[in-house]
Amino acid sequence: MSTFESSSTQAPVSFSYADSAAQEALRDISEVAAVEVIVTAAVHLMSAAAVKCGLADTEDASQLMDLDEARKLINALAALIVTSAPDIGNQHARSLRDGLRSLQLAFREASVIPDAPGEGPGEKFTGGVS
Description:
This protein has one domain (33-124). The chain is an all-alpha fold. The chain has helices spanning 20-30, 34-52, 61-64, 67-88, 90-110, 123-126. This is DUF1844 domain-containing protein.
């Protein structure tokens, strides 16, 4: 049985993996390839960044725009793609890089104050985007 105890002054928190639902979830996770987990995480980051860049397919897309949040998501996405590319293979990495580049360009287009070349979101990992 695995247990996690809180170190704060609150009552200890315990998690047990003894119940069958938790055991089944662990088995399900163990069957997922690392490449699939990485690509899924990248797609989630990409989707969130698209919404924050104002690219949501809704009437209120501009109200959902938050370029500060988009910058953070694009930075995280770029770091994930660049560092995992050798492990996930060219087929996956190429399409993720294309999506990242599209987001970087969309960010640049949506931004009122342009970033200096090489200073845009994710560009410290990818190099300048044009």
